[in-house]
Amino acid sequence: MTVLIGKILWLAGLVCWCAIRYVPYRRSRRIATVIERDRDREWVLMLISFLGMILVPLVFAATGEPRFADYAATAPQIALGAVLCAAAMWVFWRTHKELGRNWSATLEVRERHELVTTGIYGSVRHPMYAGYWLWMAAQALLLANWIAGPVGIVAFAIHFFMRIGREEEMLRQRFGDAYGAYAARTSRIIPRVY
Q1: Phi-psi label, residue 103: left if phi above 0, alpha if psi -120 to 50, beta otherwise
Q2: Which of 51, 49, 47, 39 minimizes the C-alpha distance to 166?
Q3: pLDDT of amino acid 107
Q4: Does domain 2-185 have CATH number 1.10.10.10?
């Protein structure tokens, strides 16, 4: 029963994530001209993320495959996964709300792009990535399978470490000293740690 509950909670998190991103995604397709974009690299990273964060877990949630990697989930594990998932969704909601028209699904800088440094961005430069780390930890706990659970952590780690440096460089080029000062007083992911 705990395995089924974990799958249902993971699926609820996925639906919530899609709902949070729907309006910003639709709006971002109609906004100002893109000045700089790293299209090819972004598509590869998005594909890796999709496979590990959505496709493999979705196949497991729907079919139970790969069954050979199943393990027995515990109630405290599922409860912790639910808490992390809820925290991730709250972080996603806050970041999308505070970014407003500055949000995009891919790494790009637009004509009217503004540097957001308030709210959740006041202490962390990349809270959306923090939300993804929380969500992938939740996935690892909610999906009682040694492949479907942790594959999201691996996929997002690849995405994160191949993207973060390029993203910060683009922001430095666009916002100059303002971004440098912002970076000096904030952490990347965890307030006052990293």
Answers
A1: beta
A2: 39
A3: 78
A4: no
Distances (CA, A) of 78 to 4, 67, 149, 163: 10, 19, 12, 30
Mean pLDDT for all residues in the chain = 90
Q: pTM value?
A: 0.90
* Two structure tokens written together for 6: 């974990």
Which residues 6+ apart lie within 8 Å of 98 measured at CB? 116, 118, 119, 120, 121
Q: pLDDT for 81-116, tens place per residue? A: 999 999 999 999 999 999 888 887 777 777 778 899
What are residue 145's DSSP bridge partners?
A: 70
Quick one: tokens of 150? 């942790």
CA 190 to chain centre: 14
Radius of gyration of the chain (CA): 17
Query: What is the token pair recorded at 53?
Result: 């964060």
Q: How far apart are CA 70 and CA 117, in angstroms?
A: 43
- Per-residue pLDDT of 12-56, as tens digits, reads 999 999 999 887 766 665 555 555 566 778 889 999 999 999 999
- The full set of domain ranges for the chain reads 2-185
Which among 151, 150, 155, 163 has a CA at the least distance from the CA of 189? Answer: 163
